[in-house]
Specification:
The chain is mainly α. The protein folds into two domains: about 55 residues; about 50 residues. About 60% of the residues lie in helices and about 10% in strands. A two-stranded antiparallel sheet has the order 1-2.
């Protein structure tokens, strides 16, 4: 069959438009096993590496395109669903803990401003005797 195409030129590029009957003829030759996808591209001078694959998806039976088939036992599917649910649960717990952390950090910042003290730097550290003495003298005033 003769290649039926229209060529449009513009801005330094050529665009090829193939007729529906030509596309169907190429697909039928590929599906019958007379040509491979690459062989059809070469034989008919079809430009573009994905053109024939697009035609196969649109007009063909799709059995020649590579597909991934996953075979699983029902227990595996259940296990996958359980793991996905666990991931969602853990992501939710992480989000909640991040919100709590932000709230605690905000609380510390407000307390530092209000009491004019640095809680982050000296948290849990023992105060020196001089600091304790100065606190007692301030309280008695």
């Amino acid at each position: 069959m003769k290649r039926e195409k229209s060529v449009f030129r513009g801005a330094g590029r050529s665009f090829y438009r193939y007729s529906e009957s030509f596309k169907l003829h190429v697909i039928s030759e590929i599906e019958s096993g007379d040509l491979t996808i690459e062989g059809a591209r070469r034989h008919y001078g079809i430009k573009g590496g994905d053109t024939v694959q697009k035609w196969l998806r649109r007009y063909g039976k799709n059995h020649l395109l590579g597909k991934v088939v996953r075979v699983e036992h029902p227990e595996e599917k259940d296990r996958i669903k359980e793991l996905e649910a666990k991931v969602r649960e853990l992501e939710s717990a992480l989000a909640q803990s991040q919100v709590k952390l932000f709230a605690y950090e905000s609380l510390v910042d407000v307390a530092e401003k209000h009491y004019k003290a640095d809680f982050k730097k000296n948290f849990g550290a023992r105060q020196s005797a001089a600091a304790l003495q100065s606190d007692k003298t301030e309280e008695s005033k």
